[in-house]
Amino acid sequence: VQLVESGGGLVQPGGSLRLSCAVSGFTFSRYAMSWYRQAPGKERELVCSISSGGGSTNYADSVKGRFTISRDNAKNTVYLQMNSLKPEDTAVFYCTARVAGINLWGQGTQVTVSS
After folding, report:
1. How far apart are CA 82 and CA 50, in angstroms?
2. Which of 7, 83, 102, 103 could tie 19 with a disulfide, CB 3.0–4.6 Å?
């Protein structure tokens, strides 16, 4: 089983990034997917989630209207489009799925928002 995030980097405030998480080792289309983030010195927090078919999403209040989660079940990939980034969005972002009662995590990708 692998979840591999990519797309992080350094961006100026107000900028955009698109994260990807490529999944292998389980039937991706059967499971909801989520993005979490962990800022330095803070607990990991849920950013957003998407249902297995992609028809239902939910977001943390702090990212509503700025972030969009989506998925391509043909490509076994979940995405996170992040717009209007703020310095407080700086964190390591992780994709995750709960499969057979086990939380599966990627290695994370660093997002730094700074001028």
Report:
1. 15
2. 7
